[in-house]
Amino acid sequence: MSSKSSQWIVGVNAVASSIENDAENVREVLVEAGAKNPRLVEIEENARRKGIDVRKVNSQALDGVGGSVRHQGVAARYAAARTYNENELEALVEAAEGKALLLVLDEVQDPHNLGACLRSAAAAGATAVIIPKDKSATVNATVRKTSAGAADRIPVVAVTNLSRCLKDLQKQGVWIYGLAGEATASLYDLDLKGNIALVLGGEADGLRRLTRENCDGLVKIPMPGEIESLNVSVATGVSLFEVVRQRG
């Protein structure tokens, strides 16, 4: 479904967003012949207006490129998502001029969760999202669809060694806070106005030991209800928007 130079994204929102925000990276659009959805007509017109090739195809062709993702009658062949390497992270932090906001995801493996986290990060104006190269979801078609276009608007940095990356960020003056349910300190008591990295763990085991040890502090989201933990994408949204609120 994807190659190094291009990949397919499917679904009305993902394709519409890619045409609207990043048309130069859309290679062609496939639209289901005879489909009655007015949004498909809108997508087709917008694509043609921007000089993108549009092909009418049957539903089976769309099934073929969409795999297990529901295509909703439309797909786009897209230049592969731009990935940033570790060497570019320093410049991204410097460009934020003391107000870097980094989201670090430690082995988030569900592409829907990664997509939702990217969407929240883009909405919060985060500087970058950092993921490990191993044991993490990659930015694939499912992630791009779930992120509603955010995957192409925010730098995603895949790093070889997450612990080393956190140490390097600390040398750059970034304060690193890990979210952990058993922490005693509250996220809401932190000063989040400077260079900040928020670290959230994966679905199964939360933060790994080495990741915890490289945080400046562990904090929790206070939860008065009887549920002990939040889904990682929900916790990401709550945490990022506390930073946004403080920076007001």
TrEMBL record:
Enzyme Commission identifier(s): 2.1.1.185
Lineage, broadest ranks: Bacteria, Pseudomonadati, Pseudomonadota, Gammaproteobacteria, Lysobacterales
Source organism: Stenotrophomonas lacuserhaii
Keyword tRNA-binding included in the entry's annotation: no
Catalytically driven reaction(s): guanosine(2251) in 23S rRNA + S-adenosyl-L-methionine = 2'-O-methylguanosine(2251) in 23S rRNA + S-adenosyl-L-homocysteine + H(+)
Family: Belongs to the class IV-like SAM-binding methyltransferase superfamily. RNA methyltransferase TrmH family. RlmB subfamily.
A cellular component term, taken from the record's GO annotations: cytosol
Molecular function in Gene Ontology: RNA binding; rRNA (guanosine-2'-O-)-methyltransferase activity
Annotated gene: rlmB
Keywords per UniProt: Cytoplasm, Methyltransferase, rRNA processing, S-adenosyl-L-methionine, Transferase
Record-given protein name: 23S rRNA (guanosine-2'-O-)-methyltransferase RlmB
